[in-house]
Each structure stands twice: as structure tokens, then as C-alpha cells.
Amino acid sequence: MRKTLLTAALLLSGVAAAADLKVYPYDGAKFLAGQQFDLRVEAENVTDFKDATVTLDGRAVDGLIRTTTKPTSVEWTLRGLSVPAGTHELKVNFTDASGPKTAVARWYAVPATAGKARKVILFIGDGLGWNTVNAAQMVAHPFNPANGNPTGKLAMMSDLSSMASVTTSSFDSALADSANTASSIATGQKIMVNALNVYPDNTADTLDNPRVETITEVLRRTTRAGVGIVSSAFGVDATPAAFAAHTRRRGDYQAIADQFFQGSVKPDVLLVGGSRDFIPSTAPGSRRKDSTDWIADSQKLGYTFVSSATELNAANTGKLFGLFNIDNIPSYLDRAQYRGAETLKDFTDMPYLWDQTRKAVETLDKNPDGFFLMVEAGMIDKYEHPLDWQRAVWDVLELDRAVEWAKDYAKKNPDTLVLVTADHAHSLSVYGGYDAAQGPGKREAVGVYEAAGFPTYGDKRDANGLPLPETARTYAVGFAAVPDYCETYLGRRVFLDPTVSNGKTGAEAGYVPNPKICEEGSVQRTGNLPPSSNQGVHTADPLPLFAFGAGAENFFGMMDQTDIFFSIARAMGVDASKK
């Protein structure tokens, strides 16, 4: 409003406000040679538009479509542009009543190279920062009390071909969310928070933004390789969506579900959590606004549909679609150890992530031209947000079993690259030991340094061989970015949110510690997030990347998250310039 009033005041005074030019892709963008993207030029605060020229490497860009979204703007759009290898300069010369103005964007396109990998299995642990990996390592492989050495290593940390540390950021923020970070891996671009594989634009429509081609779209366009998407999160959550969809708003759930089957990727394998967005509006639990039924319609497209671990394991097909819950697949602890009816409800036969990974690979392996498979352990993040470190860490252990299977597959199939990384980190940290015999919420039961001792995880294990969380001496684990909450130091068999509403509205609305947790016996912690925050948040901490097999040498040292896209393309020898 203030900007509008200022523009009006300048016009009344006879002084035209200078037009604001924006160009997407942004200055400094890097692409694969031949990777397709949409060009968007926007001029805001325009008064009496006179002339404009848009040139790429000194030549006029043909095919631009001019629009006027509002009375004070002019836009130009060109869909499906690509550039050859090398450095390129887009230049916009614009003139209105305020005079001439110029905007320049320089891009670089990477040439195609030969690659060793015909098959890629990319594991993304949502929220899997270095500290979360380390916590899982300390639980899975306790230290030897006789000498302090670890008794083993996680599969993801063992027999590495290469490794890297990965930094993150957003197009519009130093901090990141799952949508833009997964999109950076998928496209090689910096993307806005909450956006999936698109650049900004000045329209209200979240589905018309300028797009950039993903690694899965490039493979679909230029090869006959298969594509698979697996996640333990609900079906259209940010990370699985990043490998098949385009939208400014990750919450466009119905549109994302449609893009899985109507977009340019159409994965051969789609094994995900919740069904809310794939079932018609009349079905219980549906979030759709129409009668579309992708369970039925997918089968008309040749997919075999499965909805349980039993059906998944029995499937033998070339196209596979699986939904295993109405929402997210609950934590490993809830499925394998606690098995509470209030959590599982009617979904008592859900697969483990290693089951989903194995069946996805078996299905994609029917394609002689190789495949790209993304597997997300989506629930790590969803339990780190509410500060439930036990559920988060045991989901890392579930992920590690899937990685172990994939590494064994890669040994038998040496043209396979296995990658394990994350989209972003959380502020989890192990800082001591805890004497569980003293019960919940006892600060005096926390031991630090030599008083921490050696926790006793692994003294009892479940049917899958993973340790039980209940043991005599546990770890003291905390988070750095938190709301006000009650700390018990121990887990619980039934999940509880750390906060509840304070019951107020307007400016006074906020959250307070969950009294049910406080009543268990606890220490109340004062948070450091705004009172409007009801859970923990992502951090800017660097992420691990572990690489095994063919092309692993492309992943090393300090990498930006966008570099992962280009390293995958090099490992696979992707040539995006193919028609």
C-alpha cells in the first residue's frame, strides 16, 4: 500500500517512479547445456511504457509473449528455452516515462560429459544433518566400555567411495525449507522457500510461474531410463514432489498429485505415504476438491496399485503405485516396537523403507536402460520438528537398513551410484548421558564428560535387530532452536506435540508447553523462537553426503546443494541437449 501511494504521489507531482526490472533465471544461474527453463522478464512501476528489447548473446529473443498483469506492469515470457555450453548474457533495455533502464543476467551452461553410472539411487534423509547422523551412529553402535571405541558404523558411513559436506540456502533466504532444498538437488537452481522448481513471478497464480527442468524431466526427455520416487511422508510432500512437480506453493497438494500422473515425469514407481490427495473428495479423509480417483485412474494407465507391505512384496510389474496410509507413514518405533492402536489405526501392514527401496529397484530394474530412484526418509524431519529425537533417530536407523540393501545391490551391479544426503538440518545435539532409572525430567540424572559414561543401547533388540529405546542409561539429547517446552529426557510410547495453543487470538495468540508432557516429570525450558512458534525449526548447518559406486568421485569436499544436481548429471553422463 505504501509503495502504491508513493507511486501515485510521484505521478501527481509530475515525476515518474523508475521502473523496476526483474529477470528470471536470475543472474549467476548455472544449467546443463540443453536443460530447459522458462524465461521471464518483469517490469513493475511502469508509467507510459514506450519500448523494450530483450537480447540473448546480442541477438533478439524470438517468441516472447508480452502480458500486462496489472496497470503498472509489463511482462515477457518464453517457455522452454535452453542454451548451449558456455557463458551467456541476457540483456533487457527498457524505456518508459521515467527514462531508459537496463537489466542483465549472465548464465553458464555446463557441457555434457561421459558418465559411469546407469543407475542412481539417491537417498534423502529429511532433516538429516551431521549431528542427527552422529546420534543415530551412537545409538546403533554403542561404544565399547573397555576402550571407548565405537563397536561399528552405520552402513551409510562405511566403505565410502567418496564424501562431501553440503551447504544450503534459498533464493530468498539464508535459511531453507524442504521444498526449495529438494528443488535445488533436482534442478541445480536456487529456489524460493515453499516453491518447487519454479522462479518467482508477479502473478497470483501459483501454477503459472516460470519453470526449470528437473533431473527426472531431463532423463525422461533425453533417455529411456526409468524413474522412481519413494517416501515415507505423505504422498505429495515437498521432497517427493520436487522430482515431479512445479508450483510456487508446496501446499498445492491436489495439483501436485495430478502432476505425478499428468506431468512430464510420470514416474514408473511411486511408493509414498498418505492417500489424502489421490482419492476423490467423497472418500473419508480426502483433501481433494473434485472427484478424481488416482487409485482407479492409475490402474487405467497401467500401474499396479498396492496398499500394504504384503501387496508390495508380492507385486511383479513394470509400473507400481503404492499408498500405505491416509497420511504420513508413522515412525519406525510406532510400526515395529510400540504398535499402538491409537497410532496405527487401520494401517497395521505398512512397509519399512527398505521394503519400498528393494521393490522399487526390482521394478525399475526391468528397464534395460537404467534408472534414477529418489528415496526419502521423510519422517526424520517430522519428528525433529516436535523435538521427538527418539522417533527421528530410529527413522535414521530404518533409512540405514535401506542404504545397506542398496549398497549390496550396487556391489552386484557396478554401474550403480548410491548417494545419501539431506535437504536441510535440524538443531539436534547429543550433549550427555542420562540415568533413566531416576525417571523423567531430572537434571541431576544428566551426566556430562566422564560422568556421561556409556549408554546401554543394544542390550535389547527388536525383531529387525534394531535397539530398543528403553535402556538403563540413555543419551541426553537437546535442540538449539525451540519454543517453550517441557524436557523429560526420555521418549514416550504415544507421540505428543511439545506445545499447545495458549487459547488466545490475534496478537496474543501463541503456544505454551504441553501440560501432558510437563506432568510426566520435566524441566521447563525457555524457548528462543517467537511465541508464535509451536515447534523447532530448520537450521543452516551443513549436511553430509555419502557416495558409493559408479561416479562417486564427482562428490567430494565442500559442495553447495545445487552442485549435487550437476554431479549426478556428470556421474550419469546426462546430455540435456538431446532431442
Automatic annotation (TrEMBL):
Q: Does the keyword Nucleus apply?
A: no
Q: Which UniProt keywords apply?
A: Signal
Q: Does the keyword Signal apply?
A: yes
Q: Which domain of life is it from?
A: Bacteria
Q: Which InterPro entries match?
A: Alkaline_phosphatase, Alkaline_phosphatase_core_sf, Ig-like_fold
> Which residues belong to the signal peptide in this entry?
1-18
Q: Which family does it belong to?
A: Belongs to the alkaline phosphatase family.
**Name of the featured protein:** Alkaline phosphatase
Q: What is the lineage of its organism?
A: Bacteria, Thermotogati, Deinococcota, Deinococci, Deinococcales
